[in-house]
Amino acid sequence: MTDTRSDTKMLSKLMFKLLPVQVLLAAVGAINGIVSTFFATNFVGVDAMGAVGLFGPINLLLQAVSIVMFGGSVIMCGKYMGQNKQDKLLSCYSVNIVFTVLLSILFVIVFVVLGVFDLTGFLASDPVVRKLFNRYLLGQAIGVLPFFIGNQLPAFLSLENKSNRTIVATVVYIVVNLILNFVFVQMMKLEAFGLALASSLGMWAFMGVQAQHFFSGKSHFRFSIKDCDWREGLSILKIGYPGALNQGYQALRGFIINGLLTAFVGSVGISAFASANNILCIFWSFPTGMLAVSRMIISVSIGEEDRQTLTDCFRVMLKRFIPLMCGISLLLTLLAEPLTMIFYRDPSQEVYMLTVWGVRLLPWCLPLAIVSQHFVCYWQASGRHLIVHILSVLDGFVIVCAFTALTIRAWGLNGLYIGNLVNGAVIIIVAIIYGLVVNRRFTFRLDDLLCMPVGFGAADTDRIDITIRDVSEVVAISEAVQEFCKVRGIDDRRALLSGLAMEEMAGNIVEHGFTKDKKKHSVDVRVVHKDDGVIMRLKDDCVPFDPGERQKIAEHSDVTSNIGLKMVFKIASDVEYQSLLGLNVLTIRI
After folding, report:
1. Percent over 70 (pLDDT), the chain
2. CA nearest to 73, candidates 5, 155, 147, 133
3. In the CATH hierarchy, which top-level class contains the domain 461-589?
4. pLDDT score recorded for residue 3
5. Of 102, 207, 217, whose CA–CA distance to 165 is shortest?
6. Distance, CA of 177 to CA of 204 (rounded, Å)
7. Among residues 217, 157, 151, 198, which one has the least CA distance to residue 52?
């Protein structure tokens, strides 16, 4: 074997495998914004665009509530999967659906009351824009329930390795939304109400395509009121709300920024900022999708107390996600004017250049956000709520609002754009300073910056991590495991049995799993000495295979067949198999 530590190739491949689905999911709202903006500016007018812009902070509030349920549930489910607690997993799913439906009903009632009784004067002072906004709000009320439910289901589909259904649902949403906007806005002249109605009905299609799997009888997750542990709901809210605070504060920021723009730039500033945001929203789906993928990895790793995978997840973020995002940001900056012309085609208009500068500057917030959001996600999952609260207040709220208020008189709308860039840089600096303060020393090691507890997982001296890439490395794994056990003081008998069990199971994966297709595969092996026992975990990206099911069949077969598999189950005190995010995870305890 060429090394005694795992590499990040399998994890990187897994994260990029999950990424397209999460990006598409995050892009759903952005695509809706672009479609709505296009039809608003081209077929209704600038006032309709103002109504869409005024709904922006409310949409952020909806996203914040959705993230509370989504983030809390994903983190809890990940931990339960890492701990192999299936009953808790199913209860978490059912409680999530119940709470999400109740929250949806509450928002529908609020939207209807505000729109029907014209109670939106505190948001829209212009009577023309307010009339359009009221209608837009009523149309959006129809889509609140599928918006909330539709944003929850992809996480559970990913856990069942059914992410392709989310891709199909996203395509269906895009097509339905586009067609209905054409029908309602251009043909039927329903103006702002038509814009919102098309989006809402598209969300019903999006949710329906995903939900069909859970009613098919093929889903591992089953909705059951009687199996709900309602304490799970409180845990979901407790874990989820710190991560959603950022969205909530950004919603509040939206109201403040709209007020500043109205006072110092005018309605043209709101339209330009909304247009630039709608252009960039589709690209914000990349940081959002990257965070969603990492959140699943982080939560499972915390459940398994897997220090190595946690740090590897952040290495993939820094070495793969950040360069990719910087390339996208550069492309957006170069294409600022062509993108602006989607909505505004006359360069002589004030709104045109205001939008162009937004598209030039705001993309550089994206790579900065990836770093800060990953730190916040980990600290949220590990229960460090104080720093999450601090960063949530600063991020996108205090820094942006303060910087904009100080510079908007002199720099106009560009003060807001630059304030967003300053915000991203300051948040990363604060996150680094927090790690330095907690560790009481100057360090840039990921373990230290993440502030992992001393007793979390196995220390470097209590574990080995090895990557197997071909059959030639299988024999050596037995020797490496035996040597590790002897160094740790494990008796010769258990050291020998541990080596034999590892060689047998790793050999089976290489012999059978690697040959099922033409893809390149690897096996990440971890051996941990804990509580005077040996815990061995094998993780591979081959086709799903449960050795426990094969062992049950082998018990009733010829005594000369599957001898190695029978030996492992006989000498091990416990053998557990899980399919996690499309990976086979086998844990053997000796």
Report:
1. 92
2. 155
3. alpha beta
4. 44
5. 207
6. 10
7. 198
Q: Which two tokens stand for residue 445?
A: 């090691």
Sign of CA dihedral 348, 351, 357, 360: negative
79: Cβ contacts below 8 Å, ≥ 6 apart: 299, 300, 302, 303
Say what the pTM is: 0.69
- Neighbour-count burial for 263-299, b at 16+ CB within 10 Å, e otherwise: ebbebbbbbbbbbbbbbbbbbbbbbbbbbbbbbbbbb
- The 3-class secondary structure across 210-226, one letter per residue, is HHHHHHCCCCCCCCCCC
pLDDT digits 0-9 by tens, 193-227:
998 899 899 999 999 999 999 888 778 788 888 87
Residue 578 main-chain phi, psi, to 5 deg: -140, 150
Residue spans per domain, the chain: 9-446, 461-589
Contact 71, 295 (CB under 8 A): yes
Query: Do 554 and 566 meet the contact criterion of CB atoms below 8 Å apart?
Result: yes
Residue closest to 72 by CA, chosen among 209, 274, 231, 308? 231
Pick the most confident of 169-173, 191-195, 362-366, 563-567.
362-366
| Model pLDDT, residue 302 | 81
CA angle 148, 77, 59 (to 5 degrees): 20
Instruction: Output the pLDDT for position 469.
Output: 86
Query: Residue 495 and residue 482: Cα distance in Å, rounded?
Result: 5
Over residues 32-53, mean pLDDT = 72
- Tell me which residue has tokens 């373990």: 447
Helical axes 413-439 vs 385-393, angle rounded to 10°: 160
The amino acid sitting at 228 is C
